[in-house]
Task: inverse folding
């Protein structure tokens, strides 16, 4: 291949394609099979054009060099699909809100452990972790109403009433998605699935857009994490990893589920996307479902 700089897009040869597929797979777990090869080629051509390079091999050498780390991150960013929305998969979120949070809060209350740790793995532009934060805030205020803690109630009421502490970690491999998530500014179109009571409580209108209020923003912490690596955030009560695994092949999915198992506290929960399932991939989780919403609960191992 050598015509990328001239405006015509030469096809990658099979061996070039294989090299690129392997590199991307090793770096981030995304697997581009023959059905998605045209997407890989298209994004490669865009990067070549932006870098003003016309030789695949020169570009590949750059990618695998020490100096090419930044370019490799940019290429991976061009390959990710960042589609997301607030309150995505309503049935599953109802299960999270009504069953999972109830169970966790009751268990924690009994153990006098007032901390909740959750992780949105592959958070894209932030709609998922902010949705989690809104639902946790709701569940907590209801829980505290039924189980008064004896702490003085201050005004304005904090989003997370003491003695409770909530940490929601939101991570992604895409720096541009993380920047947008951190900025927390959403258009009317993005907000179409957010009802008015949530808009009023958790967003400020800034011109034509909606800005996440500080109180909600403070519940979420954004960070870069590549799910392909071994060292992932530990001691979570809940992990959301929705619509991410579907881009991985079966071997990588198995490895990731095993890592998630180790990243969860005993009896913790894993929520995957509507088109994803743990079926046939692990026996370390039980599937739970209500109506049409599904989630997985880690089977505790006796120590
Ligand atoms: C389709 S979005 C899903 C967003 C959100 N979880 C949802 O369901 O609405 C997939 C996200 O996974 C991220 N991703 C893909 N591979 C990843 C990896 N190896 N490590 C971390 N994030 C990854 C992408 O950057 C993208 O933002």
Result:
């Amino acid at each position: 291949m050598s015509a990328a700089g001239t405006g015509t897009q030469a096809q990658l040869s099979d061996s070039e394609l294989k090299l690129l597929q392997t590199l991307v797979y090793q770096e981030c777990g995304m697997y581009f099979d023959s059905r998605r090869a045209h997407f890989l080629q298209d994004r490669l051509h865009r990067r070549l054009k932006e870098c003003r390079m016309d030789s695949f091999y020169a570009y590949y050498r750059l990618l695998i060099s020490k100096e090419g780390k930044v370019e490799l991150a940019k290429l991976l960013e061009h390959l990710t699909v960042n589609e997301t929305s607030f309150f995505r998969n309503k049935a599953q979120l109802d299960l999270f809100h009504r069953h999972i949070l109830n169970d966790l809060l009751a268990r924690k209350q009994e153990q006098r452990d007032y901390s909740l740790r959750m992780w949105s793995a592959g958070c894209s532009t932030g709609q998922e972790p902010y949705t989690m934060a809104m639902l946790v805030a709701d569940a907590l205020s209801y829980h505290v109403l039924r189980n008064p803690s004896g702490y003085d109630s201050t005004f304005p009421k904090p989003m997370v009433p003491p003695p409770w502490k909530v940490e929601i970690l939101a991570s992604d491999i895409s720096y541009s998605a993380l920047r947008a998530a951190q900025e927390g500014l959403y258009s009317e179109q993005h907000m179409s699935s957010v009802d008015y009571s949530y808009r009023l409580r958790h967003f400020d209108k800034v011109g034509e857009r909606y800005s996440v209020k500080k109180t909600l923003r403070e519940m979420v912490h954004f960070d870069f994490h590549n799910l392909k690596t071994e060292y992932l955030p530990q001691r979570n009560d809940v992990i959301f990893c929705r619509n991410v695994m579907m881009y991985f092949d079966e071997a990588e999915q198995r490895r990731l589920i095993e890592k998630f198992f180790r990243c969860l506290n005993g009896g913790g929960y894993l929520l995957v996307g509507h088109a994803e399932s743990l079926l046939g991939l692990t026996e370390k989780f039980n599937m739970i479902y209500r109506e049409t919403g599904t989630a997985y609960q880690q089977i505790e191992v006796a120590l």
